[in-house]
Amino acid sequence: MALIEKPVSMYDGNHMDIVMINALLHSLYDVFDTMVGLDIEPGIPELKQDRVAKGDVSGLVGMKAEGVSGSIALTLTQSTIREISRGLLGEEISDSGREAADLAGELTNMLVGGAKRILAEKGRDFDMQTPQLLVGDGHEIVHHYPGQTVLLPVKVGQDVFYIELNFI
Fold it and tell me: N or C: which end of the chain has fewer CB within 10 A?
Protein backbone atom coordinates (compact mmCIF):
# COMPACT_ATOMS: atom_id res chain seq x y z
CA MET A 1 0.00 0.00 0.00
CA ALA A 2 1.45 3.34 -1.05
CA LEU A 3 1.18 5.79 1.83
CA ILE A 4 2.38 9.34 1.89
CA GLU A 5 5.17 9.74 4.42
CA LYS A 6 5.79 13.48 4.24
CA PRO A 7 3.66 16.52 3.42
CA VAL A 8 2.85 17.16 -0.21
CA SER A 9 4.27 20.62 -0.77
CA MET A 10 1.81 23.19 -2.11
CA TYR A 11 2.64 26.19 -4.25
CA ASP A 12 0.86 28.51 -1.84
CA GLY A 13 2.91 27.28 1.12
CA ASN A 14 0.20 25.08 2.65
CA HIS A 15 0.63 21.39 3.43
CA MET A 16 -1.82 18.53 3.46
CA ASP A 17 -2.56 16.75 6.71
CA ILE A 18 -0.76 13.42 6.24
CA VAL A 19 -2.84 11.60 8.86
CA MET A 20 -6.00 12.54 6.93
CA ILE A 21 -4.52 11.54 3.57
CA ASN A 22 -3.28 8.19 4.86
CA ALA A 23 -6.69 7.47 6.41
CA LEU A 24 -8.29 8.16 3.02
CA LEU A 25 -5.80 5.84 1.29
CA HIS A 26 -6.39 3.07 3.85
CA SER A 27 -10.13 3.51 3.37
CA LEU A 28 -9.75 3.40 -0.43
CA TYR A 29 -7.90 0.06 -0.26
CA ASP A 30 -10.46 -1.31 2.20
CA VAL A 31 -13.47 -0.29 0.08
CA PHE A 32 -12.04 -1.82 -3.07
CA ASP A 33 -10.86 -4.97 -1.31
CA THR A 34 -14.00 -5.73 0.70
CA MET A 35 -16.88 -4.04 -1.15
CA VAL A 36 -15.86 -3.84 -4.79
CA GLY A 37 -13.59 -6.89 -4.99
CA LEU A 38 -11.07 -5.26 -7.31
CA ASP A 39 -7.38 -4.52 -6.92
CA ILE A 40 -6.31 -0.90 -7.22
CA GLU A 41 -2.97 0.75 -7.77
CA PRO A 42 -2.59 4.43 -6.88
CA GLY A 43 -0.44 6.38 -9.32
CA ILE A 44 1.79 9.37 -8.79
CA PRO A 45 0.02 12.44 -7.36
CA GLU A 46 0.29 15.68 -9.30
CA LEU A 47 -0.89 19.23 -8.79
CA LYS A 48 -4.10 19.90 -10.67
CA GLN A 49 -4.00 23.00 -12.81
CA ASP A 50 -7.70 23.59 -13.50
CA ARG A 51 -11.22 22.73 -12.27
CA VAL A 52 -12.22 20.42 -15.13
CA ALA A 53 -12.95 16.85 -14.00
CA LYS A 54 -10.96 14.02 -15.56
CA GLY A 55 -14.06 11.82 -15.67
CA ASP A 56 -17.75 11.74 -16.46
CA VAL A 57 -19.21 11.57 -12.93
CA SER A 58 -17.87 12.94 -9.63
CA GLY A 59 -18.76 12.94 -5.96
CA LEU A 60 -17.42 15.88 -3.92
CA VAL A 61 -17.40 15.94 -0.10
CA GLY A 62 -16.28 18.74 2.19
CA MET A 63 -14.52 17.76 5.42
CA LYS A 64 -13.37 19.63 8.49
CA ALA A 65 -11.35 18.57 11.52
CA GLU A 66 -9.35 20.36 14.15
CA GLY A 67 -6.50 22.06 12.32
CA VAL A 68 -7.47 20.90 8.82
CA SER A 69 -10.25 21.67 6.34
CA GLY A 70 -10.72 20.44 2.85
CA SER A 71 -12.58 18.37 0.37
CA ILE A 72 -12.17 15.22 -1.63
CA ALA A 73 -13.62 14.42 -5.02
CA LEU A 74 -13.87 10.98 -6.55
CA THR A 75 -14.13 11.15 -10.35
CA LEU A 76 -15.07 8.15 -12.45
CA THR A 77 -14.73 7.71 -16.19
CA GLN A 78 -17.39 5.76 -18.09
CA SER A 79 -15.10 2.72 -18.32
CA THR A 80 -14.43 2.72 -14.56
CA ILE A 81 -18.15 3.09 -13.87
CA ARG A 82 -18.73 -0.13 -15.80
CA GLU A 83 -15.82 -1.93 -14.10
CA ILE A 84 -16.67 -0.84 -10.55
CA SER A 85 -20.42 -1.41 -10.93
CA ARG A 86 -19.78 -5.03 -12.00
CA GLY A 87 -17.71 -5.59 -8.86
CA LEU A 88 -19.89 -3.65 -6.41
CA LEU A 89 -23.39 -4.28 -7.77
CA GLY A 90 -22.93 -7.47 -9.78
CA GLU A 91 -24.26 -5.69 -12.86
CA GLU A 92 -22.92 -3.11 -15.25
CA ILE A 93 -24.03 0.51 -15.32
CA SER A 94 -23.65 1.40 -18.98
CA ASP A 95 -24.21 5.17 -19.01
CA SER A 96 -23.19 8.19 -16.99
CA GLY A 97 -26.70 9.14 -15.89
CA ARG A 98 -28.43 8.97 -12.50
CA GLU A 99 -27.25 5.43 -11.65
CA ALA A 100 -23.63 6.40 -12.33
CA ALA A 101 -24.01 9.53 -10.18
CA ASP A 102 -25.48 7.42 -7.38
CA LEU A 103 -22.53 5.02 -7.69
CA ALA A 104 -20.05 7.92 -7.44
CA GLY A 105 -21.91 9.29 -4.42
CA GLU A 106 -21.99 5.91 -2.69
CA LEU A 107 -18.28 5.27 -3.32
CA THR A 108 -17.44 8.76 -2.07
CA ASN A 109 -19.50 8.15 1.08
CA MET A 110 -17.80 4.79 1.67
CA LEU A 111 -14.35 6.30 1.13
CA VAL A 112 -14.83 9.30 3.41
CA GLY A 113 -16.87 7.31 5.96
CA GLY A 114 -14.07 4.74 6.19
CA ALA A 115 -11.51 7.51 6.70
CA LYS A 116 -13.72 9.02 9.41
CA ARG A 117 -13.80 5.65 11.23
CA ILE A 118 -10.02 5.22 10.93
CA LEU A 119 -9.38 8.71 12.29
CA ALA A 120 -11.89 8.25 15.12
CA GLU A 121 -9.92 5.16 16.22
CA LYS A 122 -6.85 7.43 16.44
CA GLY A 123 -8.69 9.99 18.56
CA ARG A 124 -9.26 12.44 15.70
CA ASP A 125 -12.67 13.31 14.42
CA PHE A 126 -13.92 15.31 11.47
CA ASP A 127 -17.22 16.42 10.11
CA MET A 128 -18.21 15.50 6.59
CA GLN A 129 -20.83 17.01 4.33
CA THR A 130 -23.28 15.18 2.10
CA PRO A 131 -21.65 14.44 -1.28
CA GLN A 132 -22.37 16.83 -4.09
CA LEU A 133 -22.87 14.85 -7.31
CA LEU A 134 -21.54 16.24 -10.59
CA VAL A 135 -22.26 14.72 -14.00
CA GLY A 136 -21.28 15.42 -17.57
CA ASP A 137 -18.31 15.60 -19.87
CA GLY A 138 -16.10 18.51 -18.83
CA HIS A 139 -17.94 19.26 -15.57
CA GLU A 140 -16.03 21.37 -13.08
CA ILE A 141 -15.08 20.43 -9.54
CA VAL A 142 -14.90 23.48 -7.30
CA HIS A 143 -13.11 22.93 -4.00
CA HIS A 144 -14.11 25.69 -1.61
CA TYR A 145 -10.70 26.07 0.01
CA PRO A 146 -7.68 28.12 -1.05
CA GLY A 147 -5.26 25.16 -1.03
CA GLN A 148 -3.82 23.63 -4.18
CA THR A 149 -5.69 20.56 -5.43
CA VAL A 150 -3.71 17.34 -5.76
CA LEU A 151 -4.87 14.81 -8.35
CA LEU A 152 -4.27 11.13 -7.59
CA PRO A 153 -4.87 8.69 -10.46
CA VAL A 154 -5.93 5.21 -9.34
CA LYS A 155 -5.66 2.26 -11.68
CA VAL A 156 -8.37 -0.41 -11.48
CA GLY A 157 -8.01 -3.20 -14.04
CA GLN A 158 -7.12 -1.49 -17.32
CA ASP A 159 -8.97 1.68 -16.35
CA VAL A 160 -8.19 4.75 -14.24
CA PHE A 161 -10.29 6.89 -11.92
CA TYR A 162 -9.20 9.98 -10.03
CA ILE A 163 -9.24 11.33 -6.50
CA GLU A 164 -8.84 15.05 -5.97
CA LEU A 165 -7.57 16.18 -2.58
CA ASN A 166 -7.70 19.77 -1.42
CA PHE A 167 -6.76 20.41 2.23
CA ILE A 168 -5.46 23.38 4.13
Answer: N
pTM over 0.90: no
Query: Do 129 and 38 touch, CB atoms closer than 8 A?
Result: no
Strand partners, 47: 150
The sign one gets for the Cα dihedral 159, 164, 106, 35 is: positive
In a domain, 34, yes or no: yes
Provide the residue range defining the domain that includes 128.
Answer: 18-167
**96 assigned to some structural domain:** yes
Is residue 109 within 8 A of residue 131, CB to CB? The reply is yes
How does pLDDT run across 117-128, given as a tens digit for each residue?
888 888 887 788
